[in-house]
Design brief:
single chain, Rossmann fold
């Protein structure tokens, strides 16, 4: 479970202190999918970084699985993140001098886990990138780089996956592919993501809406049918509409002939 208690974050700019987050408190249950939304500058990415232990709060606490992240030193926090957390960055953050396979196997190697390359290859194959294992980031499209980033964040089988604007830099086709992959990945972990995409936000169990660094509203979304089921229904509706139009056309022609 994730819990924030009175969370706040200030940044010092010259002689001024800029408050980005103020008194943010909420809980995320194990296995839940939560989206964080809000206008630009509302503190979404800052909040995500605090939840993942990539930054330290000025006030308040972040509890992950009952562990207070702020009470950990950097060594312990790094180990905790490596074993429990996956993070998908908005700008991918792939190592440019490493291939796709090497980027994905890196978290496993840092933990001295055996079979790193084999596990990384299987994860990339799952992402539809079996033919891109030895390609460098500059040789990949934006959608492919995002899939590599998701593979890298997922290869350690984290209990919590964070994603910052996972579709923000992608075209609609690549974005749809990434959404499908995230929906598949979330079956095995808690998923918390920041997004401006209302369709993606609406897929979440709950949506936390920020404004001016505070929680403005928490929306519970109704459970939706799977994408495949929705597509099937849409196709049926299209066929039905077409059949109705055809019948109307035949009726009109009959009347006209009379």
């Amino acid at each position: 479970m994730i819990e924030t208690i009175g969370l706040g974050r200030d940044y010092v700019r010259g002689e001024r202190a800029l408050t980005v987050l103020h008194d943010v408190s909420f809980k995320v249950e194990d296995g839940e999918f939560v989206s964080i939304t809000g206008p630009s500058g509302s503190g979404k990415s800052t909040l995500l970084g605090l939840l993942a232990g990539l930054d330290r709060p000025t006030r308040g606490r972040v509890l992950l699985a009952g562990q207070d992240l702020n009470a950990m030193d950097e060594t312990r926090l790094s180990r905790f993140r490596g074993s429990r957390i996956g993070f998908v960055f908005q700008n991918f953050q792939l190592v440019p001098t490493l291939t796709a396979l090497e980027n994905v196997s890196l978290p496993l190697r840092l933990q001295d886990q055996s079979g790193a390359d084999e596990r990384a290859a299987r994860m990339l194959e799952r992402m539809g990138l079996a033919d891109r294992l030895n390609h460098y980031p500059t040789q990949l499209s934006g959608g492919e780089m995002q899939r590599v980033a998701i593979a890298r964040a997922s290869v350690t089988s984290p209990s919590i996956l964070f994603a910052d604007e996972p579709t923000g830099n992608l075209d609609s086709a690549s974005g749809d592919t990434v959404i499908d992959l995230l929906m598949d990945t979330r079956k095995n972990c808690t998923l918390v993501l920041v997004t401006h995409n209302p369709a993606l936000a609406g897929l979440a169990d709950r949506e936390i809406r920020l404004r001016d660094g505070q929680v403005e509203q928490i929306v519970v979304h109704k459970k939706r049918s799977s994408k495949k089921a929705a597509t099937k229904v849409a196709r049926k509706a299209t066929r039905k509409s077409g059949q109705t139009s055809t019948r109307k056309g035949k009726t009109s022609r009959k009347k006209a002939s009379r």
